[in-house]
Hints:
It is a single chain. The protein is mainly beta. The chain has one helix at 4-7; strands at residues 30-33, 40-45, 53-57, 63-68, 75-78, 85-93, 96-104. The strands form 2 sheets. It has a 4-stranded antiparallel sheet, with no helix packed on it. It has a 3-stranded antiparallel sheet with strand order 1-2-5, with no helix packed on it. The longest helix is centred in the first third of the chain and has 4 residues, at 4-7.
Amino acid sequence: xxxxxxxxxxxxxxxxxxxxxxxxxxxxxxxxxxxxxxxxxxxxxxxxxxxxxxxxxxxxxxxxxxxxxxxxxxxxxxxxxxxxxxxxxxxxxxxxxxxxxxxxxx
Length: 106
């Protein structure tokens, strides 16, 4: 533990943080196409493990879409309501996580 008086100077606090990188999990294989997308994106699962949940987050980290999956069938998702930009698509299956980039352009 670091005492607060050692990291706070009256103006703000400088607390050291550690960042754990998230990398692709080799057992979760999902393809997004087209990418960049404009109105819809197909999520194709071709993995040994079917994701249980897919979450799309904007650049601020806010969830803009979230889906619970019940099968390993391909899924076409309407993204016409998303503002053009970069998004992160998280695939979650149990304790396994995979993150891919999705670009929305018009």
